[in-house]
Specification:
single chain; alpha/beta; globular; 26 helices; 23 strands; eight-stranded mixed beta sheet
């Protein structure tokens, strides 16, 4: 059989996998349609089976597989929906404080802010006098960094009681509830002996590696068994920046390595093929239990198991068919995997290695020696396939990701096998420590590569975000593949020429815009700015800087406008985000900073969109705290203090967080949110304000202001954050007259664009405007 024909046969099940994936995604996103869709799919499957019985053809067989797989996945959603709906009603029926009795089902994973998250299966959920029981409902639980001590005795299999509040779900979430825990009480410690033994082995490896120096020690448990609790935030960021983070997540490579060792060992002792396959499957099962069944591990394990059966049937080469069958089976068992980016990345990466790696190696051989081409083809294929998906969560392209993977590739298997052996050698501490030390050497090499590559200037090329970024990088990936794979013939030059034009156009546009925004952008604003009002239209977004620490007060209405402003000032991460309140013109741009904020201080939530914003920020690794009068903190060398809102004020404009910021090179600044005159008067009754250098005028310069507040503040500079030609007539003449009467210079973002201010060496307040306006002082 020719190679082309074998490839066509291997790709027959691709439509089945795509159909099952699409059906599962639709069902979990729109569960109301699941019952009718499952009925239609089962009818299709039965008719297809009948036709296949009478006239068997490959096409009909694929249709049957697709219909059955999709029908099982959608039926799974339909059957689960009544239980999920009852829990949703319980959590949103007016009592958001919940008491949950559950069994921990996933590893405890820290995020960059120190919070710890884990998966659990709920046996009973109580809200007030209402309760839902049974069903082992999936949960996602987060514990704040200051409360993680309560998790000391918690591990997979532990039975716990969680007192928590619910967080709104995202579309297609597998979890029935996402909880923010105030307290976790252990009722039973790891009652399952097998899970307890696996947990003890992982802990033993972490303790053994903990005695070794440097970042390599933290990587050993991650490389061996996916245990990343010891990985610091800086090392994690370096691994991501260098495109090496996949090495600490157990996936197909680990499963293939473990199965290969077991299969090869059985072959060395003369075992028959059936015995070798059985040894591989048993070892694989033990490995999955040891590292816990995370989605990527489940996918990889299923892939390896089906591959073993394919080997038993004498069809080991049908890798793509095996992958497609694994996808269909996994989606049938867990339809919510269809919305998991990790599952998508794992599947796409495996498919790229099966389909692209060898052709890319053949193409690269035209420019380099074959051994080097073979080594490059694997990370190159993965980068081309996974890059477009990765920009959905981090709109940056690691320029040297392929090179970093090439350098790390020889070390990863050694570290994995030595670390795994050390994990299993826990009963013999001296043996374990020796094996851990062996694993530490290649792990340190990998950590060193990550830190060096991640720190190189220009290593991460900022890219378009969301679907536009995915489409643009997909086009680049396809064209790069065409350039490398173009076969000999008269059309090869034309194909390559078109592909090169597309690549140069997309990269040129993106790179040029990026250079203007990130490299040249900071040259166009004052280097010594301390406070800056971004021009984001009709909304607030004010930056503060002290000794390199950055705060952002509100995000404006549009993520793109905010991202442009942050890039202009060269800001990639925020130490503090203050969401004064949750009107769209103050929180609408929050997606531009999700996963880029350490601490979020916010005003009262009225539920709905506010809760979703806070949940997204927490899932991105931020800590969130509700503001209250007297609350204070440090920003570099400056100190900030909350003056308002009072606890008695309902969520909205008059519950805006009001900040007093002083010192650390920042002019004394008062930021008034959207307070009305009545709320301004109430705040002054609680605590009269003193004088300030800068006041951010309340509510975009509306007429509803208290002139006595501005008289008491006596600002040198008044910032009016307002959109051009807005429908509200902001800023009103009355507030402009008030500001003129107290001698304040008015700077408006609608007329002058970005506005920045700082104190010079002589202590005099300096002002910079993006656009010169006739008559501006």
């Amino acid at each position: 059989m020719s190679a082309a024909r074998r490839r066509r046969r291997a790709a027959r099940l691709v439509p089945a996998a795509v159909t099952a994936w699409a059906a599962a995604a639709l069902a979990v996103c729109v569960p109301e349609t699941a019952v009718w869709a499952s009925a239609a799919l089962w009818v299709t499957a039965v008719v297809g089976c009948a036709l296949l019985w009478r006239h068997p053809t490959p096409v009909r067989a694929v249709i049957v597989v697709a219909a059955v797989g999709a029908a099982v996945a959608v039926s799974h959603v339909a059957l689960a929906q009544p239980g999920r709906t009852s829990v949703e009603h319980l959590a949103t029926g007016g009592a958001r404080a919940l008491v949950v009795e559950a069994t921990v089902s996933g590893k405890l994973d820290p995020n960059s802010s120190g919070d710890i998250w884990f998966d659990a299966l709920a046996d009973r959920i109580t809200a007030g006098d209402r309760a839902v029981t049974g069903g082992a409902l999936p949960l996602r639980v987060g514990v704040a960094a200051d409360a993680v001590a309560s998790l000391d005795r918690v591990d997979i299999g532990s039975e716990v009681t969680v007192r928590a509040t619910s967080i709104p779900l995202g579309v297609g979430d597998r979890a029935v509830l996402v909880l923010r825990a105030q307290e976790v009480i252990v009722r039973a410690e790891r009652p399952n002996a097998v899970l307890a033994a696996a947990s003890d082995l992982r802990r033993g490896l972490v303790e053994s590696a903990g005695g070794l120096p440097g970042p390599g020690a933290a990587l050993v448990p991650g490389l061996a068994v996916g245990e990343t609790r010891a990985v610091s935030a800086s090392l994690d960021e370096s691994m991501k920046a260098s495109s090496l983070s996949h090495l600490t997540a157990v996936s197909g490579a680990n499963c293939a390595l473990v199965v290969g060792v077991a299969y090869g060992t059985a072959a060395l002792v003369g075992a028959r093929r059936g015995t070798r396959i059985a040894a591989g499957l048993v070892t694989l099962g033990g490995f999955i239990v040891l590292v816990t069944p995370e989605p990527s591990v489940v996918r990889a394990g299923a892939m390896a198991a089906i591959a073993m059966f394919a080997l038993a049937l004498g069809r080991a080469g049908a890798g793509l068919s095996v992958l497609c069958l694994a996808v269909v089976l996994l989606l049938a068992v867990d339809p919510w995997l269809a919305m998991s980016l990790g599952f998508a990345l794992s599947t796409v990466a495996t498919a790229s290695l099966l389909v692209l790696a060898r052709p890319l190696a053949d193409g690269l051989c035209r420019w380099m020696p074959r051994p080097l081409a073979l080594a490059l083809s694997i990370p190159f294929a993965a980068q081309l396939a996974c890059g477009p998906l990765l920009v959905l969560v981090d709109p940056r392209v690691p320029v040297l990701g392929v090179a970093a993977n090439l350098l790390a590739a020889p070390a990863a298997p050694v570290a994995t096998l030595a670390g795994l052996a050390a994990c299993l050698a826990a009963p013999f501490p001296w043996v374990q420590d020796g094996l851990t030390a062996i694993a530490w050497l290649p792990a340190s090499w990998i950590a060193g590569i990550a830190q060096v590559v991640g720190a190189l200037p220009g290593q991460q090329l900022p890219w378009w975000s969301e679907l536009g970024g995915l489409a643009a990088l997909s086009a680049v990936s396809v064209c790069v593949a065409v350039v490398v794979l173009a076969p000999p013939g008269t059309n090869r030059r034309m194909l390559r020429g078109v592909a090169l034009v597309v690549v140069c156009t997309v990269v040129g546009l993106g790179g040029g815009q990026t250079a203007l925004r990130t490299v040249a952008g900071p040259w166009t604003v004052p280097g010594n700015w301390a406070i800056a009002a971004c021009d984001v239209g009709q909304g607030d977004a004010v930056l503060l800087r002290s000794e390199g620490a950055i705060a952002l007060i509100d995000t404006g209405p549009d993520p793109a406008a905010l991202d442009t402003c942050l890039s202009r000032f060269g800001i990639s991460r925020l130490d503090l985000l203050v969401l004064t309140h949750f009107d769209a013109d103050h929180r609408g741009g929050v997606e531009a900073v999700r996963a880029r904020v350490d601490l979020v201080v916010h005003g009262p939530s009225d539920g709905g969109a506010a809760d979703r914003v806070l949940a997204g920020l927490r899932q991105g690794g931020s800590r969130t705290e509700l503001a209250h009068p007297g609350m204070q903190g440090i920003l570099g060398g400056a100190r900030w203090r909350v003056l308002w809102p009072s606890a008695a004020v309902a969520a909205g404009n008059d519950a805006s967080v009001v900040l007093d910021v002083r010192g650390g090179g920042i002019p004394d600044t008062l930021l008034l949110g959207d307070l009305s005159a009545e709320a301004q008067q109430a705040m002054q009754r609680n605590e009269p304000v003193g004088e300030f250098d800068v006041v951010k005028v309340a509510h975009h310069g509306s007429a509803d202001q208290d002139a006595r507040l501005y008289g008491a503040a006596s600002p040198t500079l008044a910032l009016v954050t307002v959109g051009a030609d807005n429908d509200y007539g902001h800023p009103r003449e009355s507030i402009l007259s008030t500001l003129a009467s107290v001698g304040a210079t008015v700077a408006r973002t609608d007329q002058e664009g970005i506005v920045a201010a700082w104190k010079g060496n002589d202590g005099v307040l300096a002002l910079w405007r993006e656009r010169d306006v006739a008559g501006a002082r």
